[in-house]
Design brief:
Layout (H helix, E strand, L loop, with lengths): L1 H34 L5 H22 L11 H24 L2 H8 L2 H13 L5 H18 L11 H20 L5 H17 L11 H27 L2 H4 L6 H13 L5 H27 L1
Helix pairs in contact: 1-9, 1-11, 2-8, 2-9, 3-7, 3-8, 4-7, 4-11, 4-12, 5-6, 5-7, 6-12
Length: about 290
Amino acid sequence: MASAATSGSNTIRGIFSMILGGATLTMSDAATKWLTTSLPIGEILFVRALFVTIAIGVILWRCNRIQDLRIVSLPNMSLRSFLAVGSTFLVVTSLSKLPLNEVIAILFVGPLFIALLAGPLLGERVGLQRWLAVLIGFAGMLIIVRPGAQTFQIAAFFPICAALVAAFRDIVTRKISTSEKSSAILFYSTLALTLIGLATFPFGWKPMTFNDIGIAILAGTFFGLGHYFIIEGYRYAEASIIAPYRYLNLIWAVILGYILWKEIPSAWVLLGTPLVVGSGLYILYDEGKKSRAR
C-alpha cells in the first residue's frame, strides 16, 4: 500500500514538474521575444546562455558534483550541442518574426518528426496508425502556415526547421542519456550556445541597457528552471503520462502573447493546432503502450 501511495505521489510530482517546466520555458521564450525588438539574436543568446552556463557550473561546484560534467563520448556530446545551438537560433529567429502562440503551435510538430526519424535512426518500427497520425499532424501544420496563401510568411519555415533540428537533437539525447549525465548535456549545450553567440560579436552587437540585461537574465533563469523541472518530471513519472502536459505550453503562450503584445491566435492557428496536438498525443499514447508491452 505504501509503495502504491509513493508511486501515486511521484506521478503527481512528475505532472506538476512538467507543467511548471513548460510554463517557465514559455516565459523564457516570451522574455527572449521581447528582447528581439531591440537586440541582435546572437547577443541575446550569448547573455542568456552565459548566465545559465555559469549557474549550472556554480550549482554543481557547490554540491560537489563537478564530476557529473565528465564526457563519455565527445563526438556524441558535440553533435548534441551543435543541434541544440541550431534549434535554439531557429526558435529565437521565429520568435522575432511571428506571434508567440503561432511559434509554439508550429513547434508542436517536433514529436511528428521524431516519429518519422525513429525508424531509420533508432530502428523503431513505425506502424500504419502512427503514419496516419503523422500525416494528420502535418496537415494541421499546413493549415497553420497556409503555404500558397496570400498571407503566407516565409518566416513560418523557421519554426518548422527548428522543430526538425530539435527532433534530431532529441533523438541524439535519447541515445546518449544512458551514458551522459543530464547536467552535463545541459551544461555543454549552453556552453556551446554561449561561444557561438559570442562569435556574432563582430556582426553588430548593440549596447545593452540595465533593463535589457535584467530581461536576459530572467530569460536565462526561466530557461534553466524549465529544463530542470522537465528533467525532474521525467525522473518521477513515465514519459507517456507526463509528456502530454507539455501541450499546455500553448495556453501559456496565448496568455503571455495577449498580455505583452495583444496577440490573438488566428482562426487558422485555432483550426490547425488541434490536429497537430491530437496526432502528437496519439503518438505519445502509442509509444507508452509499446513501452508497457515490452
